[in-house]
Amino acid sequence: MKSTEFEDNRRNFIKKIAVGGLGLATLPLITSSQKEEKKLILPKSDHLILDNTSFPADFLWGTATAAYQVEGAYKEDGRGLSIWDTFSHIKGNIKNNDTGDVANDFYHRYKSDIQLMKDLNTKIFRFSISWSRIFPDATGKPNQKGIDFYNKLVDELLANGIQPFATLYHWDLPQYLQDKYKGWESKETSKAFGDYAAYVARNLGDRVKNFFTINEFRTFIELGYGAGVFAPGLKLPEEKLGQVRHNGVLAHGLAVQAIRANSGADVKVGLADNLSIAVPVIENEKNIKAAKIAMREINASYLTVILEGKYTENYLKSFGKNPPKFTEEELKIISSPLDFVGLNVYNPTHLIEAADNKLGYEVIPFAKSFPTTTSKWEYIAPEALYWATKHVKDIWNVKEMYITENGSSSTDERTADNKIYDTDRISFLRNYLTQLQRATSEGVPVKGYFYWSLMDNFEWTSGYSITFGLYNVDFKTQKRFPKLSAEYYKEVATNNKVM
Ligand code: PNW
To answer: Is 57-495 in CATH node 3.40.50.2020?
Structure first.
């Protein structure tokens, strides 16, 4: 087709839309009769929701943070240093040479920040525990003041009607483990993680009923030990990375067992994984099938081995002569049964089309013009939330899930009268939550959603320049300002609906 013809067709198309020539009959909209049909085919149950906005009655709404990103107080009350302290203090590693030394000063301001959670009408909060507050040095002796901080935090949350969900590892490895064992390159670190998990479960398990072992293997391993842009800043070759990944999932399994052995039967445990998400580029049957095949392969090193207890053949073959070293016994530990799976979902990682090749699928590239948030990796594609949860249910038959993170980074300008009209974040949320509602309305067992993040915070290598919060933070004064999205999210949490 000549470009002029293309232009003509385009113009006609636009004209047709303008005059209403392309009506409902030709556009793939859900008509009211289809909606009726959807209502009729759903079995009757209290848990199934029969409209296009509501969530199940017991659905939980919350927000999330992580220790190094908000706590600050990096030398207080006997806290040891972590690899993120070391990494952020090296000039040039972080935008504007920002560090988490003070961050949001959550260590001292947790009480007023819990009031912000309350103002949002949220009932769950996901935070992480700083390993080096609890075990600050290589002696293995716990630091009472470290655990005391989390005791106070948990008590204050419960007193305010908010259930604590604790993550044990959100990337701030004690520096002495990096120095002594090369961190995650060694199984000694996996074992140390198990011991730390046991201690935390013994001390908090009477009040914290939900634990996540590890947050986002892919990010801290591939970026920290592979690309060298996250702490500890290493660029290991693929065969060594294979071992790091294995040691990471082994640590998860050891922690699951340690938590079970050191707390009551009412304590639940899972992980928070940013799984790779295969989205069928066109939602037809053959692409959906291909995307399911792709899911197992693209998550081979983390979620697949955790939920299946084995690495896929293709994954092991990819190492040639140097596959990671592991035993059958370790695979059993890694795949210890979980109570729930937490999913961090921001964007699809793979757009998939069915293909007549060995794999059965092909990866379609993202268009250069694909929209993103202010984080250039964050493609705006709400359907990622639907497919992530749907695949995890269909492939691995997971019975309970949480969205442990989802959120948008925006420009967030504050007006002269301290208002932040983050309308892009509201649009992001409305669209992503619509896709989550689509999943729950089909019976995908998602129990709750944690918005990332309660407030702007130390966004790793981007320092304070990238903001995901519902609350804006003036880091000079530590004042918090609700964004318009905070108002939006409160409405969602209050009405249990997409608004
Ligand atoms: C996640 N990437 O990190 C983390 O769990 C949070 O700590 C973080 O603040 C949040 O998402 C927003 O970034 C990621 O470069 C960091 O693809 C980087 C990437 C993905 C996730």
So the answer is: no
